[in-house]
Amino acid sequence: MHAEVDEWVRKAFETSADECLALIDEAKEILDEEKEAREGSGLVRISPQAVRNVVVVGDIHGDMESFVHILKDIAAINADRIVFLGDYGDRGSESVEVYYVLLKLKVSDGKGEQKEKKIIMLRGNHEGPPDMPVMPHDLPFLFTKKYGVRGKEGYEKIKELWECLPYCVLVEGRYLMLHGGLPLNVASIKDIAFAHDSHPASSNFEEILWSDPVEGKGDFYSMRGAGRMFGEDVTERGLRAVGVKTLIRSHEPCEGVEVRQGGKVLTLFSRKGSPYFNTRAAYLILDENALMEAKDAEELARSAARIW
Ligand SMILES: [Mn+2]
Question: What pTM was computed for the model?
Answer without folding.
Answer: 0.97
